[in-house]
Amino acid sequence: MEDISLVTVVLMLPLVGFFPLVFVRSLTDQTIRWLTLTVSIITFGASLLLLRNFDSNQAGLQMVTDWEWISAGSFTIRYFVGVDGISIWLVLLSTFIMPLAILFSFTSIKERPRLYYALLLLMEWAMIGVFIAQDLFLFYVFWEVTLVPMYFLIGIWGSEDRIYAAIKFFLYTMAGSLLMLVAILWLGNEAGTFAVPDIIAQIQSGELSFDVSTERLLFLGFAIAFAIKVPMWPLHSWLPDAHVQAPTAGSVILAGVLLKMGTYGFVRFNLPMFPEASRDFAPYIAVLAVIGIIYGAWVSYGQKDVKKLVAYSSISHLGFVMLGIFALNSAGIQGGILQMVNHGISTGGLFLLVGMLYERRHTKLMSAFGGIWAAMPLFSGISLVIVLSSMGLPGLNGFVGEFTILVGSAGSDVLSIWFTVFASLGIILAAVYMLYMFNTVYMGALDKEENRRLPDLHWQELWALIPILIMVFAIGLQAGYFFDFMDNSVSQLVEQVSGSVVATAGR
Amino acid sequence: MNFSTDVQASIMAILPEILMTVLAIAVLALDLVWSRARRRDLGYVAGFGLLAVALIVLLVGGPPGDETSDQLLLGGMIRHDTMAQIFRVMVIVAGGLSCLLTMGVSRLNVRGDFYAVLIVSVIGGSLLSAAADLIMVFLALETLSITLYLLAGYLREDVRSSEAGLKYFLFGAFTSAIALYGLSLLYGFTGETNIYRVGRALATGGLGDAPVVLALGLITVGFGFKVSAVPFHFWTPDVYEGAPTPVTSLLSTASKAASFGVLLRFLLAAFPPPELLGSLENVQDYSQLWVQLAVVLSVVTMTLGNVLALVQTNIKRLLAYSSIAQAGYTLIGVAAIATDRSGDGAAAIAFYMFMYVLTNSLAFGVVILFANATGSERIADLAGLSRRNPGLALAMTLALLSLGGIPPAAGFVGKFLLFRAAIDAGLVALALVGVVNVIIGLYYYLVIVKVMYMERSPDEDQPIPVSTPYTWALGIAAAGVLLLGTILVTPLVEWATEAAQSLYVLL
């Protein structure tokens, strides 16, 4: 047994907070809040150390912990974790979003704080686990565990239709996951191992090969689970319900991190393990992605409820991510990964803003607002930046991601240029619905009596938003720093996806 | 094939039964000696007595040698192998937990005779796990059944209990008779009563399919009744609902586990796949007959169980249908054992039953506590349980997640192993049906969780007290469910695999 790596430490830190919350009955509500916040900040700090120790010249996994967990006669399941250039940013995104969600909950969650914060920490543990697990079984465990806290978060602290939304969320996702479980079992039986790097190595060396239809079935087994999570059109119908009903912190985590588990899954599992099928399916997935981009934007524009608008915009944004990934080239995938992070930051921010509006007025209807810039200048200024970042204004984070994705899809060998053309349309539509929203809520005359005396941000809200602002500018202006970490891992991935195609052509 | 006559080994082979007989007599004696007030502690004697026996079996109950000829003892009546050991442990643990649960049921908790009958029932289950002779199979089955008829109708003044007892008896007597007819046919065909000899004689007898199908079909009725497989399940909901809840718990755990234990041994020994018979020539393969039978039974059992569970309003009836569905999942493993030589299928069943015994004891424990405190067994009345007693709600949630197959509860690992074995045996379609059923099942498990956590009730400020024996029973079961899903997976899987391999050694 080797030493415990930093990755394992980051994973276990949230549990350090979780157990006292569950078992120490004497904690006061205020202690619980601060304890949770402290734990999540420490976890974020530890994950920053990951960045420092990360060697971006290496393509493979780093800071690996590899222990045997379950060993039976014919198979072994390992506790096998590590990060590479693809997962490190998503781990950081999870640990970054969490303290903000917790800080925002200080004022908004009055009921049953012990259970609430315990669930948040459990959530964080499982999310980090999803992004670092390198064993299919372990991955699946974390993947499933994320459902449980979210089910309770939506079901207990959500709004009116919360129970319907919670059960729909759980069952919808679970249906996809179980298909993936069958695919995992099949693949594991064929490969004789559940460790992802080993399976990829076997596939790359030709030691393990499937006939075309089997590979496609396996690809679909994984793809459907991930597509539901993303969610890709037409598997998205759980998302508006879950988002709208969830408490603000739940929406932030859902949009900020959970949706990325789907897109991450495509990058981590589908592309390298089923390269041929990935190429075969790329145009179809890209079609769904582009439909998602336009559909999401279109439906967003039609919303009256600002939270629904943001929820549908996620479908559009994640369509971009999917398009980039299935361009199957470096630019597309790198752009896709960066855009996952961007979407987490921008949309996480938007949900926080919506939550702050809701706290003040207890409504999310756009028509109830109007002209609140005059009442809340600080809040509105910050909102403008986040809205512009979500729209993809140059100089802010969203632009870099979307631009790189479009470069990737335009230069892709598997996708025609039309995908890029239609996707660009999505950017214009994004500007339309976002500015329409901004116009209705923030600009114009302050004509409603209730809105005149809305208090501006208090310190907790401000501190939940400042880190987001920092990241919006940091990624927007210094994207190179973020891409540097991905370069090697992504080029290796691109080789893996295209390499076997060359082999097929020669066969 | 000769049977071992080693006296010491023979005694060791039935040591658990000897110990339990002593325990039953001791309980009866104490019942006479102790005053009525002290008799409340009889449950401790019976419960911890059984748990102690389970511990002894766990520590020293292993087989005397690796050779089958050493393990067939007492004239071939008993096969003392690891499979017998693992099933004995779970049956006895289930009995012990039932005794502890009985301590909360007024009218039963002071009756030494009840505990004594319960222990005799466990003796039957324990013998059944090791039975290797047609006569022993039937005797053990009846020892288990007849005592359970008694136990189900023990509350004579309660109409529902009496009805349950009578119903169970009528169904049971009927199916036992049919099964006995099948067993006698086997004896008639082969002239042997030891199941291993029956298997050899049958394989070389040149009988053709028709008579074997007849015998197999008749015997299936008997076992199908015991594990409550569809279409022999009609008694299950009524008896589960009417019987005293500790008895229901015993019915759904010990009785089912022991029946699966003997089913595995019996099918592999009496209708073996030809490769297991080694050097014999001109053997006929009857194993595909029962594989097909198991596939069909499995599909209808889990589907019907899950679908009917959806509409239940009484928690005990819901758990009854859930237990039918669980039997269906387990039958997936039965279908897998013929083609798979590594023992994964049988190991999966052993694991599954082990965790299922603990999980169901946990669920029924909560049900008893709740029913005692409120007098209700309606699901809707569970509303607000998480406020009335958070620990109890958490325990129930853990049990339901385990039944639904969500990590980190042990049920997930169990389902993983079962589906894995099925896919390994080429039964991918069966695994997919299983997966669809898991999704249906999750719905009604989640609804209970929803009621406990998300719905309010006017009584929610009245806490539900938990007495000491319940703390023990629920604590043991909950710890088991959680640990077997996480850090104790490997020891149990290894043990189960070892047990499974012994099952494949026929000569």
> How many runs of DSSP E, i.e. beta strands of chain A?
2
The total of beta strands of chain B comes to: 2
How large is the radius of gyration of chain A?
22 Å
Strand content of chain A: under 5%
> Which structural class do you get from the secondary structure elements of chain B?
mainly alpha
- Number of helical segments with 4 or more residues of chain B: 21
Structural class of chain A: mainly alpha
Give the proportion of residues in helices of chain A: over 70%
* Mean pLDDT reading of chain A: 85
Question: What order do the helices and strands of chain B follow?
Answer: HHHHEEHHHHHHHHHHHHHHHHH
- Enumerate the spans of chain A where pLDDT stays under 50 for 5 or more consecutive residues: 501-507
Describe the global form of chain B: globular
Strand-and-helix sequence of chain A, N→C? HHEEHHHHHHHHHHHHHHHHHH
Helix content of chain B: over 70%
> What is the topology, as strand order, of the major beta sheet of chain B?
1-2
Largest sheet of chain A: 2 strands, antiparallel
Helix count of chain A equals 20
Unreliable segments of chain B (pLDDT under 50, ≥5 consecutive)? none
- Report the sheet-strand fraction of chain B: under 5%
Tell me the count of domains of chain B.
1
Distance between the ends of chain A: 42 Å
